[in-house]
Amino acid sequence: MIIALAGGVGGARMAMGLAAVLPPSKLTVIVNTGDDFEHLGFSISPDLDTVMYTLAGVNNPATGWGRVHETWNFMQELAGLGGDDWFRLGDRDLAVHVLRTMALNNGVALSDITMTLARRMGIRHRLLPMSDTPVRTRVVTSRGELAFQDYFVRLRCKPRVQGFRFAGSRRARLPAALQSIIHSGKVSAVIICPSNPYVSIDPIFSVPVIRAWIKHRNFPVVAVSPIVGGAALKGPAAKMMSEMKCEVSPLGVARHYGARVDGWIIDRQDAKLSPHLEREGKSVVVTDTIMSTRAKSANLARCTVSFARLLAADRA
Ligand code: GDP
Ligand code: CA
């Protein structure tokens, strides 16, 4: 069993590749829920939805969030009636928020409604939230501490970041399915998708059971760098890294994760960094990491899985 840790768009692209090369029984994707929030009465899980829509083939590749062939009648009417329209919710997208919210209000676990929705969308691989109870990313900025979506969507990531906090992580309740994976001893590798280190992957590590499981692992952890050629392909990862005084390169990301990662996959554009990573004790593979097509996602996934198997064999 391979476990992938994922945020939104980078996580979803990698998850799509992994799902193309691994059977459903061999892959579970654990998704960040630090971006989740309550809005207009709905429980919204942006990263879970991005991964779910991408695996189902109904995502909007232009925006990186939401659904393709979307319409916006609800949003228009809402704005016309004076409702909050800073967070865009499409008509098709709404169906998921309504069903998730109803389920949570009826006491169904987030992981259960996630698995139900994913199955109904035709997804055969297992998709799980990192926690069944709320964990909320808080961004400490030059304008004070902000809720994640306030920082990310409403303020368009403009305030300078000074730190992050994951409210609720200490008492996070692990999904039962994740608990049994951890206790099964059947995990052969963990793959960290090329997602934002601060606001997609760190929230997952902030869950104590997950952090301890990785710390005391008997399997390799392989990560794909979200930074390529000194920049992020999408989103505020590079801006956050420089504001956090972290070098904007795969080396900076590697130092951020430290001992939690054994092997790094970096892009050809960053090939010259490979000896530096090796000097820090990491195994390195250099390849194309820009997943602009399904085929490229699958190629990167194949390469990542072989690398992980090689490292696992080295440990044995
Ligand atoms: P978000 O939750 O939607 O912001 O998405 P993630 O945290 O999962 O992903 C954001 C990160 O993914 C950014 O730092 C991007 O640079 C990275 N990313 C997106 N697509 C790709 C890709 O095709 N290859 C690589 N290497 N990184 C990517
Ligand atoms: Ca996200």
Task: Describe the overall structure.
The protein has 316 residues and is of the alpha/beta class. Helix content is 42%, strand content 19%. The protein has helices spanning 9-21, 46-56, 73-80, 91-105, 110-120, 148-154, 176-184, 197-205, 208-215, 237-243, 250-257, 274-279, 294-315; strands at residues 2-6, 27-31, 37-39, 42-44, 126-129, 136-141, 144-147, 161-167, 189-192, 221-224, 227-228, 231-232, 263-267, 283-287. It has a 7-stranded parallel sheet, sandwiched between helices. A 3-stranded antiparallel sheet has the order 7-6-8. Strand 13, helix 12 and strand 14 (283-287) form a beta-alpha-beta unit. The chain is globular and about 60 Å long. The protein starts with a strand and ends with a helix. The model has no long low-confidence stretch (mean pLDDT 97). The structure holds guanosine-5'-diphosphate and calcium ion. Residues 7-11, 13, 47, 50, 64, 194-196, 200, 224-226, 228, 232-235, 237, 289-291 line the site of guanosine-5'-diphosphate (GDP).
